[in-house]
Description:
Blueprint: E1 2-7, E2 12-19, E3 23-31, H1 33-37, H2 44-66, E4 75-81, H3 85-102, E5 106-110, H4 111-117, E6 130-135, E7 140-147, E8 150-156, H5 162-172, H6 179-186, H7 212-231, H8 233-239, H9 242-265, E9 273-276, H10 283-296, E10 300-301, H11 305-308, H12 313-324, H13 342-347
Parallel strand pairs: 1-4, 4-5, 6-9, 9-10
Antiparallel strand pairs: 1-2, 2-3, 6-7, 7-8
Helix pairs in contact: 2-3, 4-12, 5-6, 5-7, 7-8, 9-10
Amino acid sequence: MYILGIESSCDETAAAVIKDGREIYSNIIASQIDIHKVYGGVVPEIASRHHLDGILPVIYESLSEADITLADLDGIAVTFAPGLVGALLVGVASAKGLALATGLPLYPVHHIAAHIAASFLLDQAPQTPFISLVVSGGHSHIIRVVSMTEYEILGSTRDDAAGEAFDKVARAVGLGYPGGPLIDQASTGGNPRAIRFPETDFGDGNFDYSFSGVKTAALNYLNQMEQYRSRKPELYEKYFNLADFCASFQFAITHALTRQLMEAAAAYPSEDIILAGGVAANRSLRTALEAACMETGRRFICPPPQLCTDNAAMVGALGYQLAIAGVEPATGRLDAIANLPIDIWAKNLKYLS
């Protein structure tokens, strides 16, 4: 079964061809990172315009690299929620047009579920049920995946997502965008215990996250250092070290992510732990989670960095899972949705057909 995946939820225009939900025949990504760097983050209207320019060439290139035609496909999968609504509309409209022209079934993919499905593209794919931590610029969720059409949210962020906190602090310290990889690089050689940043804990039995506190503490620290630099340069030289600052801020976030995840997963001791999403490329987080899983005798699974960031291979992988689960294809009424919880999407799949 060959599935064409289409992804345009934020600032990556992507298309991929996936065979049987496991084998990547092509995975084309047109990134807009360099375009948005000058603004310090993604500008929705600019992202939409570049999706319009890139979507058809990217789809054509994915089919060409896979050496197949539209007639060889068995289905199309497209991210329709959540994300930037203007960006999503470009992918959804393109997928609907292709489905209408070819008669191929169209599968409505949830962005977070697609990140989780990226783990099925590995040699050792997980077996449901399992626990997944999905961490990106817009999401920080602990999810129990009963099946690829049934999800239970165990915890989520109440304010900033982890990736969003990385982006804001990286911009404030002058590193640029995207913040996660830049802070990760700048932390090399730094002492993660040099600065104690706060971690939010909502108490026993609650596994939600909050990263607004650590973000604010880091920004306040930078403001204090800026005052030292302008008024007392000797104190700035004494107290500010970029590597220490980045390592300490990164540690506070990765420690909170790991702690809450492992506490939530304790009720399911035999289930695998899956790390997914753009922040899953962070070396510190991967190392911490792998160590925690080893201590508890769990299997830890995380896709390579190129499958952690937004891509269409994960969309095609989930499209295959929906097809074999018997999900009815979407109709021409499918529309983009900016905000849609993963469990609500799964429970309402039949209404999208």
